[in-house]
# Entry
Amino acid sequence: MKRKTITVGALLLLSLLFVSAPQLFGVKTAKAANAGVIYGPNYHIEYLDLPGEEQLTRDVCTYMMNMFVSYGYNYGWLYKCVDSAATRSAYGSNAYYAETHYSAATVFTKGHASEYKCNPNGPKHHYLMDTNGLHVEDDYIWPNTPYGRHRFVCTWHCGTTMDYPGTICPYCGGRTSLPYAWTHSNTMNLEAYTSSTGNYVYIGHEGYSPQFLNPTGWGSYNHAHYVYYLYLYLLQYHMNVRDAASWAAYYTFGNYYLPATQLYTLHWVDPPDPPPPNPPFPGFWSRMHIFGNGNLGLPGY
# Structure
């Protein structure tokens, strides 16, 4: 199959690290109905985060924002929250602002996450970690997305698709599972790659989410390249998520059929252990999931 023609800007990503681009914040355009927010909290976990991971995250978030500015002509509000700006309160207030001022919203966030129980007998809750390691819980996101207008959400954090479809916790009354909290939909198809129904797309990970610097095993590509190409095809070429995810897989994993790639196949990851006397890191299962409607792209496309 022939490769699609891509821009010179995309070809510059053949190196392992990106060249920094100008910072853009709070960009607004006229007469647009959509909102887009990008987060890179860069909360550092010693020995787990690879050297250079935080800077690469900043660069990818900037490239993404530049693509939204260049091609997201139907976006009335764009905001990039990285490092100290990516706080728990920012996640909540930005989500609420997008829901109450725009007809549709999209979010990308990359970082760490974990789970907890509000009661030993209760269901699992899940949370993202903000720039300070504070919890951005599912039952915190839920009330800040009151109208279900977050139509396309990509959470490049560990464990962010787990325990979906979620429920109402009988102990705290909050919602469980991050896909349910962000979209307010607990009926998304679990395999968007073959689904053409529903109004939402949610991308996340079962278990470990690869670091951006983790190599894909194809050429000199890493997982940051995958995310870059995914958004390149979503924004510049206005593709649906099924096609964009497939073309991104073609360039960075050498296989257009996404389900055949390691990224989309459940596999075991054993990260390097820190030096003694630190305890060793546990191994993790890992798989990216795309829930919802594979025929949908970013809001407005």
User: Anything to note?
Assistant: The two ends are 25 Å apart (CA to CA). Residues 53-71 form the longest helix (19 residues). Strands lie at 34-40, 75-82, 104-110, 113-116, 125-129, 135-137, 150-156, 201-207, 267-269, 284-292.
